[in-house]
Amino acid sequence: MVGMALACSLASMPLTKHLNVAIIDSNPALGSRVRLKKGDPPDARVSTVTPATISLFKDVGAWQYIEQNRHAYFHKMQVWDYTGLGYTRYNARDINKEVLGCVVENKVLHDSLLSCIETTDFQKTFHPSRLTSMTLHQSSSSMGMDSTLLKTTSSSLGHLAKLELSDGKSIFAKLVVGADGGKSRVRELAGFKTTGWNYSQNAVICTVEHSVENRCAWQRFLPAGPIALLPMGNNFSNIVWTMNPKEAGNRKLMNEDDFVKDTNAALDYGYGPHPKSSLLEMGDMFSWLRGDVTLSATEGFEVPPKVVKLASERMVFPLSLKHANDYASKRVVLIGDAAHTVHPLAGQGVNMGFGDALALSRVIAEGIAVGIDIGEVTMLKKYEEERKRTNIMMMAILDGFQKAYSVDFGPLNILRAAVFHGANYISPLKRNIISYASGDQRLPLFS
Amino acid sequence: MASKLLNYCHLQALCSRHVFSPRLPHPTRAALTLLHFRPFSDAPSSPPPEKPHSYNNTRNDIGMEKGPIQTPSSLKELELVKFASIAETWWDPEGPFKPLHVMNPTRLAFIRSTLCRHFRKDPNSSRPFEGLKIVDVGCGGGILSEPLARMGAAVMGVDAVEKNIKIARLHADLDPVTSTIEYCCTTAERLVEEERKFDAVISLEVIEHVADPAEFCKSLAALTIPDGATVISTINRSMRAYATAIIGAEYILHWLPKGTHQWSSFLTPEELVLILERANITVKEMAGFVYNPFTRRWSLSDDISVNFISFGTKKVQ
């Protein structure tokens, strides 16, 4: 998705639309363009796109295709935990916006980007195969090899990156963009080292159905990990439930009714009491901020809608934190999950990736404007500097949350509850949090 | 050091009425050898010529003195490999030419905007210089010539140092877009004799190494077609430039080898404008480059007290 977003972004800018792009993706959906129909059953894999990503899609002209398929804007969000000591409600009106984000199935996102790129006369070629090997630095003495495709003399190709695909073809490129996910082959072949650790948690993902419409995003932190309920539209919602690997294995295999019961318990009365809608007593403590109280602070605690049945298969993914030490070197650059993988607890992962795609396309355009070779490492390092700062900050915050919520310890619980209350009632803080999570703000606190 | 330079300037002023008269031979031998110290050429620095510098003895780029240009009889494999390995240094973004590479996009941004406006080309096109003939006088390894070619121009790069031309040609041949650049080991005066004409004549960071800037400008002007463009960049002869470009760049940051620049050879913007006027070129725009040590980036600005670049057009007779 992130790679396609980069291609769309390049196609939409006048300085870059003459570039010749080869898209290498072994995803079968790419080859056979089966048109998505509205009545299709919902997929389990969805992404929450922030308003910043929505503007990116609108700028490249892909958002119109998303609106034709299943998607769900949500304007409310509620976060609480199992101790029942506190909760926070967010509303888009707090920052005078209409939506906090939109939940879209991954296949819809991908398809819309594909449709967008097909309508332009951007020169692209699809290669439905996998990358097997890549040679980046060829000295001038090792010239004399030729590829099966290109007829130009090999001396002029000696300094380009050479990619070999699983179907036997070779491609020469000025710049190789690795957008191939957390287990990136490009990253591996280019020799980028990564830092990170595995969380001892797996995520169970599935789509469920309600009897009423759900327009709010819910997240409850349980002792083993958070469970999130995200609205998808048409009474469907997506569940992302983080728990330890053994339980995840069990939950995947147990029968559907039991799973539905478990889910309802996790969202509602299981593990601990509901937080009290303590508007009156707690509100007094912060009455000196009363003049600026946000809309969501006046809303009481709500119970999420009941899950009626399971609407898709259950998938389990291991969770980890991973960050490439460098994003760029000569002729190679990484974007999206290939550069950074995060915990899904705040729905930021793919949005960071889309931010990378936008930044890279802008850097490429600036480079072309002054005639630089797009594989030039000084230019790519500019992209790396810009995005590394932003990404590392976000990753640190998310990791902090993950660690803070994985311990069940009395004083820490009370501290977390205090944080919930603070975030709920201290309006400037809440506005900051919403803006940062929506992608409107670059730094969490000081801007 | 500063007082020695000031004395030297005073001496020069005494010897010459106007600022633009040809530089007289240096009084001391030590100063002469300093002038001949060419850090970027591998050839041994030869003793100064017997006769005093004549008007036409310009020194393009950081090059060797005039004389018969030696060309090797045939390019052997060994030579190719040797040049290829040195070529990497010119083009190694972390190597000794790093300051030039870092400054390059900023210079190109100025050239792009002024030339697009003057020749009425679309700045949003990826090849705005399509159809323009440009000459890069003092091209060195081709750091400026290649981006110009990528922007669509028909580029000719000239340099007085044969080695630089070889390096430039080797590197340009790697990319089919830049392999169209015509590289020639010659000087601006020879090109004038050949009656070559170009839409735009660009000479960046050269004029401060030239013995007679006025004559050099006349040559550049002669190469430009009427209503064509001439872009010259150099360093201002100001105290601030002495502090940053000489002491800062050469002695403290070690960006350039010591002795690369002579403060007395710098030109002030007013002087440059005047000598260009005398060569029938009207300077239309001027900008300065400033370096931000925190972001480690150069940017264009109105501050012409250190590095500055000027864009002028040839008068239509």
UniProtKB/TrEMBL annotation, chain A:
Q: What's the Enzyme Commission number for this chain?
A: 1.14.15.45, 1.14.15.46
Enzyme class comes to oxidoreductase
Q: Does the keyword Mitochondrion apply?
A: yes
GO CC aspect terms: extrinsic component of mitochondrial inner membrane
UniProt cross-references to InterPro entries, sorted A to Z = FAD-bd, Ubi_Hdrlase_CS, UbiH/COQ6, UbiH/COQ6_monooxygenase, UbQ_mOase_COQ6
The coenzyme or cofactor needed here is: FAD
Pathway info? Cofactor biosynthesis; ubiquinone biosynthesis
Matching PROSITE patterns: UBIH (PS01304)
Which reactions are catalysed by this chain?
A: a 4-hydroxy-3-(all-trans-polyprenyl)benzoate + 2 reduced [2Fe-2S]-[ferredoxin] + O2 + 2 H(+) = a 3,4-dihydroxy-5-(all-trans-polyprenyl)benzoate + 2 oxidized [2Fe-2S]-[ferredoxin] + H2O; a 2-methoxy-6-(all-trans-polyprenyl)phenol + 2 reduced [2Fe-2S]-[ferredoxin] + O2 + 2 H(+) = a 2-methoxy-6-(all-trans-polyprenyl)benzene-1,4-diol + 2 oxidized [2Fe-2S]-[ferredoxin] + H2O
Q: Which UniProt keywords apply?
A: FAD, Flavoprotein, Membrane, Mitochondrion, Mitochondrion inner membrane, Monooxygenase, Oxidoreductase, Ubiquinone biosynthesis
Mode of membrane association: Peripheral membrane protein
Please tell me where this protein is predominantly located: mitochondrion
Q: What are the residue boundaries of the FAD-binding domain, all occurrences included? A: 166-264, 314-390
Its Gene Ontology biological processes? carotene biosynthetic process; xanthophyll biosynthetic process
Q: Where in the cell is it found?
A: Mitochondrion inner membrane
A GO molecular function annotation here is: FAD binding
Its function, per the record, reads: FAD-dependent monooxygenase required for two non-consecutive steps during ubiquinone biosynthesis. Required for the C5-ring hydroxylation during ubiquinone biosynthesis by catalyzing the hydroxylation of 4-hydroxy-3-(all-trans-polyprenyl)benzoic acid to 3,4-dihydroxy-5-(all-trans-polyprenyl)benzoic acid. Also acts downstream of coq4, for the C1-hydroxylation during ubiquinone biosynthesis by catalyzing the hydroxylation of 2-methoxy-6-(all-trans-polyprenyl)phenol to 2-methoxy-6-(all-trans-polyprenyl)benzene-1,4-diol.
State how it assembles.
Answer: Component of a multi-subunit COQ enzyme complex.
Give the record's family classification.
Belongs to the UbiH/COQ6 family.
Protein name as catalogued: Ubiquinone biosynthesis monooxygenase COQ6, mitochondrial
- Organism in which the protein naturally occurs: Carya illinoinensis
* Biological classification of the source: Eukaryota, Viridiplantae, Streptophyta, Embryophyta, Tracheophyta
**Gene name for this UniProt entry:** COQ6
From TrEMBL, chain B:
Keyword S-adenosyl-L-methionine part of the UniProt annotation: yes
Signal peptide (residue range): none
| Pathway per the UniProt entry | Cofactor biosynthesis; ubiquinone biosynthesis
An example molecular function term from Gene Ontology annotations: polyprenyldihydroxybenzoate methyltransferase activity
Provide the residue span(s) of the region labelled Disordered. Answer: 42-62
Database matches in Pfam families: Methyltransf_23
The record's CDD domains line, in alphabetical order, gives:
AdoMet_MTases (cd02440)
Keyword set, alphabetical order: Magnesium, Membrane, Metal-binding, Methyltransferase, Mitochondrion, Mitochondrion inner membrane, S-adenosyl-L-methionine, Transferase, Ubiquinone biosynthesis
| Cell location | Mitochondrion inner membrane
* InterPro entries in alphabetical order: SAM-dependent_MTases_sf, UbiG_MeTrfase
Membrane association type: Peripheral membrane protein
Amino-acid positions noted as binding Mg(2+) in the UniProt annotation, renumbered to this chain = E205, E208, H209
Q: List, in alphabetical order, the GO biological process terms annotated in this UniProt record.
A: methylation
Q: What is its EC number?
A: 2.1.1.64, 2.1.1.-, 2.1.1.114
List required co-factors: Mg(2+)
Which amino acids does the record list as binding S-adenosyl-L-methionine? Answer: R107, G138, D159, L204
List, alphabetically, the GO terms of the cellular component aspect: extrinsic component of mitochondrial inner membrane
Q: Which reaction does it catalyse?
A: a 3,4-dihydroxy-5-(all-trans-polyprenyl)benzoate + S-adenosyl-L-methionine = a 4-hydroxy-3-methoxy-5-(all-trans-polyprenyl)benzoate + S-adenosyl-L-homocysteine + H(+); a 3-demethylubiquinol + S-adenosyl-L-methionine = a ubiquinol + S-adenosyl-L-homocysteine + H(+); a 3-demethylubiquinone + S-adenosyl-L-methionine = a ubiquinone + S-adenosyl-L-homocysteine
Q: Does the keyword Magnesium apply?
A: yes
Role according to the record: O-methyltransferase required for two non-consecutive steps during ubiquinone biosynthesis. Catalyzes the 2 O-methylation of 3,4-dihydroxy-5-(all-trans-polyprenyl)benzoic acid into 4-hydroxy-3-methoxy-5-(all-trans-polyprenyl)benzoic acid. Also catalyzes the last step of ubiquinone biosynthesis by mediating methylation of 3-demethylubiquinone into ubiquinone. Also able to mediate the methylation of 3-demethylubiquinol into ubiquinol.
**Per the similarity annotation, which family is this?**
Belongs to the class I-like SAM-binding methyltransferase superfamily. UbiG/COQ3 family.
Assembly description: Component of a multi-subunit COQ enzyme complex.
What NCBIfam families does UniProt report for this protein, alphabetically?
A: UbiG
Q: What is the protein's given name?
A: Ubiquinone biosynthesis O-methyltransferase, mitochondrial
| Species of provenance | Carya illinoinensis
> Source taxonomy lineage?
Eukaryota, Viridiplantae, Streptophyta, Embryophyta, Tracheophyta
